[in-house]
Amino acid sequence: MITDDQLNNYRLSGEMVRVVRDNLEENDVKGIVVAWNDEQVMIRRRNRKVVKLDRSYIYQPLDEPRISPEA
Is the pLDDT reported for residue 17 higher than 60? Predict the structure, then answer.
């Protein structure tokens, strides 16, 4: 699970992040961290829609190579 400090760093920098939800790359969510609580993270996508995602997903900077979740 991603920590509050990591989420805060992404929010303050405005850096685009990739949220890896499963093994399929087309299911990744890309956007900017807006807010979070103990269970969810809000991501603003490029089309300005906001989605709520579980904190247990993999959050990484968009410019880094994609990390695959364990099967």
Answer: yes
Query: Distance between CA atoms of 48 and 37, rounded to whole angstroms?
Result: 20
Helix (H) or strand (E) holding 54: strand 50-54
Higher pLDDT, 18 or 68: 18
Tell whether 68 is covered by a domain. no
Question: Phi then psi for 64, rounded to 5 degrees?
Answer: -90, 155
Residue ranges making up the domain that contains 45? 4-61
Q: Are 59 and 2 in contact (CB under 8 A)?
A: yes
Cα(46)–Cα(64) distance, integer angstroms? 18
